[in-house]
Amino acid sequence: MKTTFILKSTAIVFITMTSTASAENYNANHFFAERHSMVRGPYVDFAKRVAEETNGEVNFTVFSAGSLLPPAASLQGVRDGVAQVTYHAGTYTPSELPIANLVGDMAFYNTDPLVMAFASTEFGLTNPEQLAEWKANGVVYGGGYSTSEYFMQCNTSIQTIEDIKGKRLRMAGGAWSRFAEYVQAVPLSIPSSEMYTGLDAGSLDCAVAAADALDSFSLKDVVTHMNTLAIGNYYAGFEWGYNAAFWQSLSPENRRVLFNQMAYYLGQHRVEFDKDVEAAVQSAKEGGMIVVEADDTLKNALAAFVAADEAVLIANAKERGVTDPAAIIASFKALVDKWDVLLAKVDTKDVEALAALARSEIYDKIDEATYGLD
């Protein structure tokens, strides 16, 4: 009830504001802080470049850190026009986005975040079932993303299967929570903004997240040990999802500008994200954090979980109304394998090379005159 009321109130304010504001001023929403790599490039710099390339016809005002929409409301907010473009973490809306969550839960199939960012983007822009799901939710999908690998960042040392039993782990839901249960840990699905408090107060033993959180969420102040077992990476939902009416109001030329800029920042954010991880880990180590490796019992447990979990993915998707989840999984795996090969041929730290590949293999194949208009 509270969330609905707040969202409607925000929408009323937004409608009132836009009645007197220029039609070329639009809202861009992200719930991470502005300094985060998924905001400062793909939203703050993106907005500046879009304004320049459209000669001022498309101007985004960027709202970060949940200042416009809380995380769970971003999908509804972009559908209703509170924001014209938003980031959305798919696990907040499993019932509305069962296909997006199905592929998002395949985070253990390939833990290379660059591969998953590009594969999920191509899937979101081209798969017919996924496109129908976006449309049913009033969203025009623009492009995806991926965090860096998730690691256990803890206030205790975890190296073995025995160490992890009974530990309270902040998880991103879905497959991550199932993995925690598989190794007899306790999964807690809490927002990233609450990781610090949980570790500091002792209600969490570990935050399982990308290691840039050591800096961006100040976890280095409360984390004593980090285990480098790669527990997937997060890419569910979308980095850019557009309000349908807004998208349809744009000229084809301006839609192409958005395509080109999303192609650039798809690669740029991955390069910057990994730089942030490297810097955050180094700073935390200098502050006394100990980096530990998982032993074979923990590595083998993760491998056994991954092998068994695909059947759970399929069953969950069917319960949410997905007709043929096995076919969708096969389609997504094919794209992941494709991008694993393509990205091995380029310098993965060269943003321009990554952007060129994103354009030639994905965005240049999308027709700006028709995409998102039906």
Automatic annotation (TrEMBL):
SUPFAM superfamilies in UniProt: Periplasmic binding protein-like II
Regions annotated as coiled coil: none
Signal peptide: 1-23
Listed name of the protein: C4-dicarboxylate TRAP transporter substrate-binding protein
InterPro entries: DctP_fam (IPR018389), TRAP_DctP_sf (IPR038404)
Keywords attached to this entry: Plasmid, Signal
Top-level taxon: Bacteria
Keyword Nucleotide-binding: no
